[in-house]
Amino acid sequence: MPTPTLSQSLAITLIQCVLVVLFVFVVVPLTVFAERKVLGYLQQRLGSTRVAGGHKGVTGWMNRGMWKWGRIPVLSYWRGIPGLLADVLKLILKEDVIPAKADKFVFFIAPALSMVSAVVVFAAISFVPGTFFIFPSWFPGLAGLPVSGGIADINVGLLWILGVASVGVYGIVLAGWASNSKYPLLGGLRSAAQMVSYEVPLAISLLVPVVLSGSLNFSEMAREMAIGLSAWGLVPQLLGFLIYLTCGFAETNRLPFDMPEAENELVAGFHTEYSGMKFGFFYLAEYINMTVVSALAAGFFLGGPWLLPFGLQGLFNHLLPAGSWLAGPHAIFFVAKIIFLLFTYIWVRGTIPRYRYDQVMTVAWKYLIPMALFNLLLAALVRCAV
Amino acid sequence: MFKNEEMEINLGPQHPSTHGVLRVKLRLDGETITHCKPIIGYLHRGVEKICENQTFFQGQVWTDRMDYCSAVANNLGWAEANEKLFGITVPRRAQYIRTMLNEFNRLASHLIWLATHALDIGAMTVFLYAFREREDILDLNEAFCGSRLTTTAFRIGGLREDLPPGFEKMARKFLAKFETCLEEYENLLSENRIWKKRTIGVAKLSAEDAIALGVTGPVLRAAGVPYDIRKAFPYAAYAEMDFEVPTQTAADTYARYLVRMAEMRQSARIVQQCLDGMPEGPVMAKIPKILKPEVNEVYHATEAPKGEIGYYLVGEKGSTNPYRFHVRAPGFINLQCLPKMAEGALIADIVAAIGTLDIVLGEIDR
Q1: Which value does ipTM take for this structure?
Q2: Considering CB atoms only, which of B7, B16, B346 is closest to A358?
Q3: Mutate: best of A185, A257, A354, partner B, most B CBs <10 A
């Protein structure tokens, strides 16, 4: 395999960045759409499961097809798209109001902070270990060069992820502060306390894969957790996954922990004063954060690009014929796990009510942190003993 | 360097969980409420004064627009108060139909309460499920009197028309599925840990306080006082119905939830009995074209879904209009206990407290 020159590696990195950003901006609208659809089916809403355009044109043709082909669910999944389109159009076209007494610069920078910190995390996430694909021979300038499965498979990947992700809280706090209004201020303060609190058990639960795999590199951790562990590794991994997922819900401000924007108490929380595309940035950032949290959970606990979760792949791999497709890592498994976790987010939102603010804090400090510490101890024992 | 300051905040009049245009002035110490003052009147239309300028027949449409979630119950109170004033006896069939529609209306009102209360606490699925069933009740309203929300369902002396053909079938179909629907809501809420954490011990109001403040309805019954006008002073056909008055003793938000859920079951039972024992006969008493009162004044109280709704009517000799009209609105009286429930609690609890009081601002402001 030829070694790339500097300009070639830069070009490859650029292509990777474009691919990842494309992935993010395909997954996020799809998640928003899925949220409408899944909630629509869970709650028997009519709009998001039936709105389907008119009788003429493309939608008309599809509508007629629906009746002809019977009510096949798969074919009806496009229903509700008009609602999504209207939503996106509204976000883009709406007037961008800045309150007169707001701190204009901070007000402007806050949504960008949220959004950027959410996207940048993806740099350290590798979708598949090693080579993702090799440029075909006809490709100008880059023929035969490999493209790895992540943009920057750095050795301190996890540290980078946690560090950058925690910048996102500034976006929310500053938004609440800069709006110079009471409800956003309350929302911002709540979120500061909540996100800082939940970062502790989140980080501790992520230490479990670090201890078990002995690495901070994303793809190496994913490999170790998926195929390198003994059967004892199962217990801390399962417990860690549950703790991590709970904290993940809190970090992304989703029900049952959506304190910062609890719309029935604080109107819309920290983004009450935001409108137009600035609000859209917070909205996007929330969904990108959900994707990030899901990607980490998928990578460290659900076996990453391997098929089976919780290290089961390593235990059962010898049962598969050597060189079998199912035995190897594939980006499609990784993405499928992310999608399943995103579905879980929506599922939970449709099912349970919201905690009160003080109860949220109780859950973090009294239950999750001791549990996470215990789990870390367990992982250390497994690491030493086995 | 740092100073502690209380923050004053306006909850409403435009706020997603004040159920209309209620404005609550809150003083907050962090997230704890130190002072709470409900401010009302944003929806005042002068219903009582308007009714004094109209004939006894015309007044009923205004009662629709007080508590618009339980228009039928308001209509019933108005019709019965007038019948008391003029000494009219309503035919038995009309009484049964009134009772049935009133109980359907109680179901609709309680479903709205459940929907909004659950949404306030963050359980959004229950909201849509409850509205799904309420839709069927509104369809029944529509089948009976043509309108869904502001029904003007009754006439002084009985009903304008008998039940339409097919009504009984619709009603029975609804009753057949309603029990499973109730179970569906309870599966989502009753044993849900978060729901219990958010409601148990929240917005407590003891029986003594409730009586002192004049609170009626499910809020009073959840404090252990079994006062239900349908049992205490039976009206319409309630004397012939077999039902229980559910009570709880915990006097908190969860107890009120349990009471209202049990009440829905009892309402379904009453409707069933009305359908089964529906007598034949006319639905309208013989009344004169113009009503002029003989008695001077009446007060008639009925059990609306939110509590005691009382109509006070003063008739003037020789006049076709009431001389004085006053409504004892349950929401108005019940709202008084909001500061008692909310002070010292957290900001999230006031949302639960407003939800559990089940207020409708149209009735409070009139």
Answers
A1: 0.71
A2: B346
A3: A354
